[in-house]
Specification:
TIM Barrel; single chain; 9 strands; 250 residues; seven-stranded parallel beta sheet
């Protein structure tokens, strides 16, 4: 069994990055940008409505306040401020989710924040505090073995592990930084095969060539890559053909 999630609503005003409508016909969980790295109220409302129509779970994709850098720049945000901003983003999305007849079902940090809280205990604790402020029942999506999932579990929040078929891994099971060569897997066939391996055996080949274990309940399909919709369809079809159940975790 595997959940397929994608980052959606990553536009702003007249600028659109992801094909939300088409991807929502493939994925089971939608990580909706909440306005800090991308997204705006109109987009958030539209994606929530589309997700509700298709029975796709809505997740809050929270991030550092970094529209110019798409949330991918390193930032040092005081813990109290970060906790408040995480809660704020979840709350904003919850308004549109409830209006659409659904609700925010989980939280997934984005970009630099996602990678920071793999190891940074102070920032991870701030994220968990923000989630608890918004809703003390929300699952948190993150990398296996990350500090944020450890703290989520200690706080009584469901900790959900996630894998990436189109991102390269280090031997330690973390994501290779995007600035390094080979960090993003661009060969569609390779992405499909990595998806099958992650969903089936929980094993993937790291950038070094080593085989590492990455046990995950959810698989991320990035919506901002060229041909994202066709690739997502191929991944889902191959998973189903291989006997893997595609089902939301939340």
């Amino acid at each position: 069994m595997i959940d397929l999630n994608a980052d959606l609503g990553e536009g702003f005003g007249r600028w659109h990055l992801t094909d939300d409508e088409q991807l929502l016909s493939v994925v089971t969980s939608a990580n909706v940008a909440c306005g800090f790295h991308a997204g705006d109220p109109v987009t958030m409302r539209r994606v929530c409505e589309l997700a509700a129509e298709r029975g796709v779970r809505v997740g809050a994709q929270v991030s550092y306040r970094d529209l110019a850098g798409f949330g991918r720049r390193a930032m040092d945000v005081p813990p109290a401020e970060l906790a408040a901003e995480v809660a704020y983003q979840i709350g904003a999305l919850e308004v549109f989710a409830r209006a659409a007849g659904t609700r925010v079902s989980y939280v997934k940090p984005h970009g630099a924040l996602y990678n920071r809280i793999v190891h940074d205990r102070e920032q991870a604790a701030a994220v968990i505090e923000g989630v608890l402020l918004a809703d003390a029942s929300l699952p948190v999506l993150g990398l296996p073995g990350s500090v944020v999932l450890e703290l989520a579990a200690k706080a009584g929040l469901p900790a959900v592990t996630e894998a990436f078929a189109d991102r390269a891994y280090t031997d330690e099971g973390t994501l290779v930084p995007r600035g390094r060569d080979g960090a993003v897997i661009t060969d569609p066939d390779a992405v499909v095969e990595r998806s099958l391996s992650l969903a089936g055996s929980g094993v993937v080949t790291a950038l070094s060539g080593a085989r590492i274990e990455v046990r995950a309940r959810s698989l991320c399909l990035h919506g901002d890559t060229p041909g994202a919709v066709d690739l997502a369809r191929r991944v889902r079809a191959r998973l189903l053909e291989s006997g893997v159940r595609v089902e939301a975790f939340a």
